[in-house]
Structure formats: structure tokens, C-alpha cells
Design goal:
The structure holds 2 protein chains of 2 kinds. Chain A is an alpha/beta fold. In chain A, 50% of the residues lie in helices and 14% in strands. Chain A has 14 helices and 8 strands. An 8-stranded mixed β-sheet of chain A has the order 3-4-2-5-1-6-7-8, with helices on both faces. By secondary structure, chain B is mostly helical. Chain B folds into 2 domains: 78 residues, Orthogonal Bundle (Helix Hairpins); 82 residues, lambda repressor-like DNA-binding domains (434 Repressor (Amino-terminal Domain), Orthogonal Bundle), CATH 1.10.260. The chains are: A alpha/beta, B mainly alpha. At the A-B interface, α7, α9, α10, α11 and β8 of A face α2 of B.
Chain lengths: 305, 197
């Protein structure tokens, strides 16, 4: 067990978007357990600034050792701050504040941290980003191999998710273009009341094309390569399930992006019962409807190329 | 990445150029549900004008693609103008209206259109657009042709008892690839409305 110097790239999933209370930590913890029970070595990273309590969902006490011990060089390797769990193949890394501070730092440090994370000996890393769309959260979301948005079928949750998606989408485009004038147009486009009359990504492309044809083509390529994932949580009816498909269609029409609807988790009293008992649902009540939904999503994640 | 104005009718409905009429029907119902004015998935992303524009595009795409002649003409003008080959449409075999329902999702669930859609006259309209004859549905579902006609004509006084009617509506809906539950709900609403009048 431990750190490796190999350059094998790990599959890093970030779980974010939506609003607080949409179930990101609950889903991250339970997905992590299900994946590790398939024999996949999993590390969960708690980067939820608003409420770093992934350990509670795993039924373990607040960890004494965190990412700060690595950043402040009290330990020499990142693997030394990993906390074992009761589930084989599953480890936890905490230190939300330190992680996101590091992400706010200079890009060299940021890349160094991401590289250290990528070098951890595991097959899959799940990062619980929590709510909010600060620059550091967006960057982590964009740097990962796959971003997963957790949404509940409620207006506030869907609104926040779109806000997050817009911020991530424009930030990604801004990072990919090199022309300063095009970067300025993208920044301006993020404000819907902008003076350029840019209302949506299509208007943006038209505006960019007037400045730089190549950059416009690059934006189109980037938009098509941006493929976030969606999990709908606390679903109570078939109509709720369909909201996921509608969000997918709306994203295709608005951004031109292909959002992948990974699955849904039904509303289930067993979920709150398991949280109160500080026992992960998939261990406490694997036959519950919500646990079954999580297992279905797990199999999709495990089989993603 | 194309704006709604630049998308083909197939792209607007998110279907393949070889989509069957049933697939077009389902995609249309999903699109209508998604781009409904009060849709949870849409109101905070698009302006009212954008939603209206998309709604008109969906209606136009559906109108053209569900009409064999218009679709053929559209395919010829569109695919030839972009230098591509004409799509090979699947054969709409009249003798096999129970084609396997393609799953649009991991759940295999069907989309719920506006329940108002499922009045008798609208069911007839959908069936005719699909080019399916009523006697064929009668043969497939073992529902009397007369009962099917009464359902479509909304001859409510002639319809059998509710318990039987529900079963007939489900069979009829399944044969057209529609959501049976929604068809039953829509039709029962029609009966309720009629009783109130």
C-alpha cells in the first residue's frame, strides 16, 4: 500500500454542482464503497469547503491527519495522509480548505498537487467538491477526467447546476483560447446583460469568429469535447426521472454539449436512517431502493473507458 | 455545435435520419415536455423568446418528418445540398406494428407527453401519421374494431365499462408505442370533463 512513482494516470472523478444538501457527499461515499467492493482501489477526497464531513458518511471519526500535513511538509509523501477505512480498497483524504487554497495558488503549485494526487496508488479517485462555483472548485472540476453533477429535481437545484455548468463551460473555453481579445469576449459573455449582445454560446462563437476564425473553431471543438455527467438524486416519480433527460436535451440545445445522464437515486427513508446511524447505506441496507440505484451507477462508472 | 436555426429537423428532435415514425413520435413528445414553457429544465437557461423559437422548430420538424412526402422531399433537398447520401429509412412494416420499443435511456422509461394529447381524436391523428390502419391494431390487440372506432370518435356513450375500457386503451397505446398509463389517464380525463358538462 502506498505511493508509487509510476506515471500511470488515475481516473479522477469530481462530484460537484447543484446546491448544498443535494446529496453529493452521500453519493460520493456510497459510490466509493461500491466501487471498492468491485476490487477497484478507490481514494475519496473530501474537498467540500462548506461542510467537509465525508468521514461521517463513512462512519469514521474526524481524521487527525489531513492534506495540510503534506502541504506544510510534515510528511514527505501524499500517501502518508491517506486514512484507511473499514472497507478494503477504500481510503480517505481530507483537508478541503488546504486543497482548495492550493488550487487558488499559482498554477505551478496547482499542477504539482494534481500530479501528486494522480500519482497516488489507486485505480480511481472521487473528489467531493461540495457546493459553490469558486474558481478553485471550477478548476478542479475541469482538471478531472470526469465531472459529475448531482442535482435534485427542484428549481433551485437545477438553477444552481446550470449556473455551475455555465461558469465551468466559459472558464474552460477561456482557458483554451490564447488570444487576449477573445478571452475578453468570453469573460464578457458570462454576463447575460453584456453590451455585445451575446446571449448564448452560439452568439459567442459568432462574436469570436469576427475576431479570429481559428479561435472560433477551437471553441467549437472544446464545447464538443466537454462532456460532464449528471446524477439525479431524491427522485420521487417517473416524471422526476425524466427531468434528467430534459436537462440533457436543454444542455444540448443551449451549450451544444453532450451531458451524460449517469442515473438517478430514488428518495428513500433508508438514506436518512443510514446517515443518522453513521453507517453507509450500501453497507447498512444494500437491498434498499436507493442503494440499488447507487449500485447501478457504480457499474456504469466502473465500466467507463 | 449548431444554433437551433442551423440544426436539421433530425437534430432538433435528437433522432437519427433513419428514425422510424414511432421514434419520431416519442422524440417529439420528449421535446414538447422538455421545452414546455414551465419546464423545470428550461426556464432558467433560455429566455422566453428562445423557448418559443425552439417550440416552433420542434413543431415544424415533427410536421415535416411525420409526413412521408414532406420528409422525402426534405431529405432530398437537405442531404443532397450537404453532399451526403440519402438516409435509408427503416421499412415501416404494416404487419409488424409491435416493433421492439427502442430504449431511449438506461431505465427504458417512456416520456410523458401532455395528457391533453391523448384524446380520441388525437390518438387517431397519431395513428394516421404513423400510417397504421385501425383493422391492423384490432387484429394485433384483439380489440373489436368497433370499440377502437368509438375510442377514436370519442363516442363515450357507446364505450364499454370502465374496467374493460382501461384494458383496451392500454392495448391500443402499446400497439402505437405510446405510454399506456398516460393514454389511460388522458382519456379518463376526457370522460370526466364530458360528465361535468
Amino acid at each position: 500500500m502506498g505511493w508509487t512513482q509510476s506515471n500511470n494516470r488515475k481516473m479522477i472523478w469530481t462530484i460537484g454542482g447543484g446546491k448544498g444538501g443535494s446529496g453529493k457527499s452521500f453519493i460520493t461515499a456510497n459510490l466509493g464503497i461500491c466501487l471498492s467492493r468491485l476490487g477497484i482501489r478507490v481514494i475519496l477526497i473530501d474537498a467540500d469547503l462548506g461542510g467537509a464531513n465525508l468521514h461521517t458518511f463513512l462512519g469514521i471519526s474526524p481524521p487527525a491527519i489531513t492534506l495540510a500535513d503534506f502541504i506544510k511538509r510534515r510528511v514527505s509523501h501524499l500517501h502518508e495522509v491517506l486514512i484507511p477505512t473499514t472497507v478494503p480498497n477504500l481510503q480517505l483524504l481530507t483537508g478541503a480548505q488546504d486543497l482548495l487554497n492550493a488550487m487558488d495558488a499559482k498554477s505551478v503549485q496547482k499542477r504539482k498537487l494534481v500530479r501528486s494526487i494522480q500519482h497516488l496508488e489507486s485505480d480511481m479517485i472521487l473528489v467531493d467538491l461540495g457546493a459553490g462555483n469558486s474558481v478553485s472548485v471550477l478548476d478542479f472540476f475541469l482538471m478531472s477526467d470526469g465531472g459529475i453533477l448531482i442535482v435534485t429535481p427542484e428549481p433551485t437545484s437545477v438553477e444552481n447546476t446550470y449556473r455551475f455548468l455555465k461558469s465551468a463551460f466559459y472558464r474552460r473555453l477561456r482557458q483554451m483560447v490564447s488570444s487576449p481579445s477573445v478571452k475578453a469576449v468570453i469573460e464578457g459573455a458570462m454576463d447575460r446583460k453584456n453590451e455585445m449582445g451575446i446571449q448564448n454560446p452560439y452568439d459567442l462563437i459568432k462574436a469570436v469568429r469576427r475576431i479570429d476564425q481559428t479561435e472560433a473553431d477551437r471553441i467549437i471543438e472544446e464545447a464538443e469535447a466537454f462532456r460532464p455527467n449528471l446524477i439525479l438524486n431524491q427522485v420521487r416519480s417517473k416524471k422526476d426521472i425524466e427531468i434528467g433527460f430534459s436537462i440533457r436535451s436543454a444542455c444540448l440545445k443551449y451549450f451544444g454539449i453532450h451531458l451524460h445522464y449517469l442515473g438517478y437515486v430514488v428518495y428513500d427513508q433508508d438514506v436518512s436512517n443510514s446517515i443518522r446511524r453513521r453507517r453507509p447505506l450500501v453497507l447498512e441496507n444494500a437491498r434498499s431502493r436507493a442503494a440499488q440505484c447507487i449500485m447501478e451507477i457504480t457499474s456504469k462508472l466502473a465500466n467507463r473507458p | 455545435m449548431k444554433s437551433i436555426k442551423d440544426q436539421t429537423y433530425y437534430e432538433i428532435l435528437e433522432i437519427s435520419p433513419t428514425a422510424s415514425d414511432k421514434e419520431i413520435q416519442r422524440a417529439y413528445e420528449h421535446a414538447k415536455e422538455t421545452f414546455h414553457a414551465d419546464s423545470l429544465a428550461v426556464y432558467s437557461l433560455f429566455s422566453e423568446e428562445e423557448v418559443k423559437e425552439i417550440q416552433s422548430a420542434i413543431e415544424e420538424a415533427y410536421r415535416v418528418l411525420m409526413d412521408g412526402v414532406l420528409r422525402k422531399s426534405y431529405d432530398q433537398s437537405h442531404f443532397q445540398s450537404v453532399g451526403g447520401a440519402l438516409p435509408e429509412k427503416p421499412l415501416e412494416v404494416q404487419g409488424d406494428i409491435r416493433e421492439k420499443r427502442p430504449s431511449l435511456s438506461f431505465t427504458g422509461i417512456s416520456f410523458q407527453p401532455d395528457e391533453e394529447l391523448y384524446r380520441g381524436k388525437t390518438l387517431k391523428q397519431i395513428r394516421e401519421r404513423m400510417g397504421v390502419e385501425l383493422p391492423l391494431i384490432s387484429k394485433e390487440t384483439k380489440i373489436s374494431l368497433k370499440v377502437l372506432e368509438w375510442i377514436e370518435e370519442e363516442a363515450l356513450e357507446k364505450l364499454p365499462a370502465l374496467v374493460y375500457l382501461k384494458g383496451f386503451l392500454k392495448g391500443y397505446a402499446q400497439s402505437l408505442g405510446l405510454n399506456p398509463q398516460k393514454v389511460v389517464e388522458g382519456y379518463l380525463r376526457l370522460i370526466e370533463e364530458s360528465k361535468r358538462k
